[in-house]
Specification:
The complex is a heterodimer of chains A (about 425) and B (about 180). With about 425 residues, chain A is mainly α. Chain A has helices at about 5-25, 30-45, 50-80, 80-95, 95-115, 115-135, 140-150, 160-170, 175-200, 220-240, 245-260, 265-275, 275-305, 310-330, 330-340, 345-360, 365-380, 385-415. By secondary structure, chain B is an alpha/beta fold. Chain B has a single domain (about 5-155), classed as Rossmann fold (3-Layer(aba) Sandwich). Chain B has helices at about 15-25, 40-50, 65-85, 100-105, 135-140, 175-180; strands at about 5-10, 30-40, 90-100, 115-120, 145-150. In chain B, strands 3-2-1-4-5 form a five-stranded parallel sheet, sandwiched between helices. The longest helix of chain B has 24 residues, at about 65-85. Classes of the chains: A mainly alpha (about 425), B alpha/beta (about 180).
């Protein structure tokens, strides 16, 4: 098949894959289109079997790690860790909206860093929403803080974001070194988000919460200890050249056994939280992007993206990554860009992460996703109330991008 | 009974001021309606964030229905608290969901004499933009009288900034003829 035709076919299949993943017609899993798309590319020889095998082998540890982290986060919820966090936020804030926002920032940043952005979006945000409702305060600043920090506070550790897991292998860094370099950019991102949100929502951070029936729940000591030990385990396993996925697996097992014994969860619930269709989707998406990459787009990307570690190159990489994340979504953007820059060392790989992780705050979920979502909502005859969200994205993303990249540049010089 | 129909828009954080203003300024036998609007963009934003995950992880735990339930509970408990403060547990209550400012204007579209609104926006920076977006829209479009309430303390007359270029000096009297 001529290369141009192969490339066109692969791009069309990527669009179909992403479209199905976002619209989820009839609630079907995202793998329903992704897996046949990858299979078709293999059958037609657009993606040679050998290259597919290499790609699958390089993605496998990442997918295993992701599965273990998802199980771990789900079990933390079954151990009431998030409900407890909500009650501490309510009582710790003493009903003051700005104090509550500070505690939400802390919780969202820590949960995102340690248990991944998925945990913040799906498990923490509803708890924050319920906490704000119980205090009878306005939800908007606190909920928007969660959605923003799920992206911009996902820079710290390889587990914080699926894109980080994809980059972790390519960066050649240990878990500890990754965290050490990304600590400063992570703090910079949170700091800029705080300054902007605090000012943007000043009018909604008013009044005094009603704290009469707010009592802090008992600390789930066991679950909190397991999470802390798992975190230590990430560093130790990586230092011993063992996949940190085993630390996540250990933590998940430690939480699963007592939760199963006390019937807080079931085998079925644990199995469902592994989410096999999603893991298949990631693998298939990786293969489709690989097919696009080898038929010309890869060399185009390598051409466009600079490989240096100077501040200018890092900024350019981060901006390109942020733009691409908004055009085709951050997961395919990471899959496309990371191989293109990984030859140039850790700095450019981490700059890609800054772009693909903090960039999506600009247009919600990447513009392709936004477009499809808009279509769905219009079909349902609903207005799209996202003007404020887009305005907030437009004023946070550029300063976050610049501040985090400068912080990365400094970090690379300090930590190396 | 007077035939005044007063709608009191209650919002988290500022509702007490509105209810108190309604009690102080209108006859007790006026017809009161308490209105609460749940902003739809908050739940939409949270929902969109989960769409951004491609629905991964934690299958069957889509946050949005949960958000709607929490928001509905909160709205009815806030309206109940406002009714208690108004001293009339049977007062008419309206609970809406959508674009806040549009829903408020829609709720007072006909047969309403006064809408009681707490100022929103950043009250630490008083000036042309200190009215928040929703209040500004309502002041512009509500087809009835709007009573704008300070939710906490009134700012005091000293919050007026000094004129930008200083007061214009009065014109000096024309002394031309005298000069000659």
């Amino acid at each position: 098949m001529p290369s141009a035709l192969a490339e066109t076919l692969a791009v069309l299949l990527l669009i179909a894959t992403l479209g199905c993943a976002i619209v989820r017609p009839r609630g079907l899993p995202e793998a329903v289109v992704a897996v046949p798309a990858a299979a078709l590319l293999l059958l037609l020889g657009v993606l040679p079997l050998g290259q597919a095998g290499t790609e699958a082998r390089s993605l496998a540890p990442t997918i295993g790690f992701l599965a273990a982290v998802l199980v771990l986060a789900n079990l933390c919820d079954r151990h009431s860790l998030f409900d407890a966090a909500g009650s501490w936020m309510a009582s710790g804030s003493r009903g003051r909206p700005v104090s509550l926002l500070a505690l939400v920032f802390t919780a969202a940043s820590v949960v995102t860093a340690v248990l991944s952005l998925d945990a913040t979006v799906v498990l923490l945000t509803p708890v924050v929403f319920a906490t704000v409702a119980r205090l009878r305060l306005r939800a908007k600043p606190h909920v928007y803080a969660c959605t923003h920090l799920a992206n911009s506070a996902s820079l710290l550790l390889p587990v914080s974001n699926l894109t980080n897991l994809l980059a972790f292998g390519a960066s050649g860094l240990s878990f500890a070194r990754f965290g050490a370099i990304m600590a400063l950019p992570w703090l910079a991102a949170i700091g800029v988000e705080w300054l902007v949100l605090r000012r943007f929502f000043a009018g909604d951070l008013v009044g005094h919460g009603e704290t009469t029936d707010v009592r802090p729940l008992p600390v789930p000591v066991f679950a909190a200890t397991v999470v802390a030990l798992t975190l230590v385990g990430f560093f130790v396993t990586s230092a011993l050249n063992v996949s940190p996925a085993f630390a996540a697996l250990g933590g998940a097992l430690a939480l699963a056994v007592p939760a199963l014994a006390r019937r807080r969860t079931s085998i079925g619930d644990v199995a469902r939280s592994i989410d096999v269709p999603f893991l298949a989707f990631v693998l298939a998406l990786g293969l489709v992007v690989k097919a696009i990459s080898i038929h010309g787009l890869g060399s185009v990307v390598t051409h466009i993206v600079p490989g240096g570690t100077g501040l200018g190159s890092l900024l350019l990489i981060a901006v390109v990554a942020a733009v691409l994340a908004n055009v085709i979504n951050n997961l395919p953007a990471a899959l496309l860009l990371i191989p293109a820059v990984s030859g140039a060392g850790a700095g450019p790989v981490l700059a890609v992460l800054i772009g693909v992780n903090t960039g999506p705050n600009l247009t919600y979920v990447g513009s392709l996703a936004t477009l499809l979502w808009r279509r769905v909502l219009i079909r349902r005859g609903e207005e799209l109330p996202i003007g404020e969200f887009l305005r907030l994205g437009a004023i946070t993303v550029p300063p976050v991008l610049i501040a985090t990249t400068v912080a990365l540049w400094i970090s690379l010089r300090l930590v190396g | 009974m007077t035939d005044m129909h007063i709608v009191v828009w209650v919002v988290e954080g500022t509702w007490q001021g509105c209810v108190d203003a309604a009690l102080q300024n209108f006859p007790a036998d006026s017809r009161f309606t308490l209105l609460h609007v749940t902003p739809s963009d908050v739940t939409e934003a949270a929902d969109a964030a989960s769409i951004g995950l491609f629905g991964r992880g934690f299958p069957g735990r889509k946050p949005n229905p949960l958000f709607d339930d929490i928001a509905d509970d909160e709205a009815s408990s806030l309206l109940a608290a406002a009714a208690a403060r108004l001293g009339d547990p049977d007062v008419e209550r309206l609970s809406r969901r959508g674009r806040v400012e549009r829903e408020v204007v829609r709720a007072v579209a006909a047969g309403v004499d006064v809408l009681v609104v707490a100022r929103d926006g950043d009250r630490s920076r008083l000036g042309p933009r200190s009215l928040g977006h929703a209040t500004r829209f309502i002041v512009d479009h509500a087809p009835c009288a709007v009573m704008l309430v300070w939710p906490d303390e009134t700012p005091g007359i000293d919050s007026i900034p000094p004129p930008k270029h200083g007061p214009k000096p009065p014109h000096p009297p024309h002394h031309r003829h005298d000069d000659r």
